Amino acid sequence: MINSRLFTVLRSFNPQEIQRFQAFIRSPYFNTDEQLIALFELLRPYLHSRSHAVVSYEIIWNKLFPGKKWKLTRFHKLTYRLLQLCFEFLRIREMEHDAITRNTGTIASLAKRKLTDEIKPLLKRTATQMELTKPNAGYFQHALQLQLAINNYQEQLQKRDEERNLPQLLQAIDEHYLFLKLKYWCAALHYQKASGQQTFIWLQEVLMPLLNDK
Predict the structure, then answer these.
(1) pTM of this prediction?
(2) What are phi and psi of 2, to 5 degrees?
């Protein structure tokens, strides 16, 4: 029976993700090792099949390397590298649904190359996206990312401190971390109620000063 981190991660992929991961590892930009492609294709039939209970990595090895002696170390290296490709694929999939994080990452790369002319329209588009976004769990994090991107852009333009977005940046930092404190404060209170254990919250020292400043 196959039982590994790689197989567990691959079995979490839905059919559409399996198709996209196949295209992903076949792209020479992300992977140039044909053995990893072959390994995935051998594992694929067992991902959503009950037959995975009777297959072993030795069986996969014999199909991948016919006639060659089983080498655990070599096989572990292959599965580890395929697992890293799974993680990279998941990271990119997550970014596909997060345009603001994707844009601010692009802005950071452009800033490193001092391509300031390309940054301004992307900042404007990102700010518009923020205005159309309803506040949710990721809103304050995105607001902070945007203000950091604006600040980096202004640094590239060598603007004086008084011309930069420092007040907006500081406000975004406060709002982001205030949201996190409220989130985990509520979780702690829920835990206290659900478990019956005594939980001491440093409300006056941690949370109230932030609320009083707003």
Answers:
(1) 0.70
(2) -80, 130
